[in-house]
Design goal:
The protein has helices spanning 2-10, 15-30, 33-43, 76-81, 125-139, 163-174, 199-214, 232-244, 266-272, 280-297, 312-320, 330-335, 339-349, and strands at 52-54, 57-59, 63-65, 86-92, 105-108, 113-116, 147-152, 180-184, 222-226, 249-252, 276-279, 303-306, 325-328. The protein is an alpha/beta fold.
Amino acid sequence: MFYPLLRKCLFLLPPETAHQVSMKFLKGCCSISFIQRSIAHSFALQETSFCKIIFGLPFRNPVGLGAGFDKNALYLRELNSLGFGFLEIGTVTPLPQKGNEKPRLFRLPKDKALINRMGFNNDGVHIIKKRLENWKQQHGQDQNRMIIGGNIGKNKITANEQAWKDYEICFNDLFDVVDYFTVNVSSPNTPGLRELQEKNVLKNILENLQKINLAKETPKPILLKIAPDLSQEQLNDIIELAIEVNLAGLVISNTTISRDGLSTPMNELNKMGNGGLSGKPVQKKSTEMLQYFHDKTGGAIPLIASGGIFTGLDASEKFQKGASLVQVWTGFIYEGPTIVKKILKHLNKK
């Protein structure tokens, strides 16, 4: 009951500031061992029936946190304490970059949505790798640990013709410190990035990564995150490509550039400007895409559902339409730290 009041207070702050304040507060709490244990006891369910083996990895539960929330692997302990089954760090690029100018994150409370144009702001792969190495040293042998995915992208200054090199750098540097990779070519906030979703360009990137991957002693699952704004022809191309290069899975979906059907007035939207829309408005489209991919592949490719998941009912619908796992992000902002626990309790009743 406390979170609606806390949310009102946080929503008085600019979105990025609210994010930093809330996560630093949680980090401070978790730095005190007995408080951290209390948080984990309150929010992280230890029910073994939630465990799932997906693309060869043991997920303690199927509810994860999508990329963009903990871009720099700063809050692994804290998010682990809140019970997430998995977390994607990043999007990580080879070089550090500041991202787009502020303000670049906006709330749409009437639509239970966010608009962001962050622009892959992150500390760069080398610094993030060190943080993940420290995490792995402490938790690598824990059988009930949170799975870590590495969401990788290209730097803004890198031409699309050279993008494959950026993905290769991130893949090699993070290989030993993450459990799986998600290739991000679908953010609308890096100029030209979505052009990498075209079949031939994307094929070159993915084939290069798989070549490196298969030369390793123990290859890692490679997934692809796609946009909800693709045409049916593009969707079919990605299905064909996913099978051809033997992707471990797909993340469906990223944010949308559409503004259709919003309750937020147009004059407010114009003030916010460009960016990717996430939250409830993406739910229907991402679920339709999820079912399309599941039906077309006969369920042969594991799918992570992302887009508009706020409640256990939302998660159940995604699983019914073919998801193996689900990711929250905007729902976490609006629903608060109990979101994983509430979703899992709902799933446990079914």
